[in-house]
Amino acid sequence: MAEVFADLKLMNKAGQLVDSREALSNKIVGIYFSAEWCPPCRGFTPVLSDFYTELVKESDPPAPFEIVFVSSDQKRKGHDGILSEEARIISQRYNISGIPTLVIVKGNGDVITRDGRADVQNKGPACFKSWQSA
């Protein structure tokens, strides 16, 4: 993940900035392209949140998995042009043409699947083992 999010600070759910290298080290990462204005996104986001909770928060040991939210919202409170530019670059890198999209990547940024949304919806946490073996 170092090359994809190199030198970026990510904002966690608590609104704190965290170092991307530290937060994503040795993890499979779901890059979630979404927007608040998008009805299908609003439907999938709680499903993804429950998936994450079951896989990471309620598992012992927690699965080595993290989600990075990449917003397609034009103006989000507290977000500036730099963040928008970073989102555009990441979207281009993974050839994102629509939202919601969940791209699952290895630690080096290589794509495991571009259809993480279907995996999560259809298989639930069981899909994580197939991601690990990819």
TrEMBL record:
Entry protein name: Nucleoredoxin-like protein 2
CDD domains listed in its UniProt record: TryX_like_family
Gene Ontology biological-process annotations: photoreceptor cell maintenance; sensory perception of smell; visual perception
Annotated PROSITE patterns: THIOREDOXIN_2
SUPFAM superfamilies given in the database record: Thioredoxin-like
Any single Pfam family the record assigns to this protein: Thioredoxin_8
Organism: Oryzias melastigma
Domain named Thioredoxin: residues: 1-134
InterPro entries listed in its UniProt record: RdCVF2, Thioredoxin-like_fold, Thioredoxin-like_sf, Thioredoxin_domain
Superkingdom field: Eukaryota
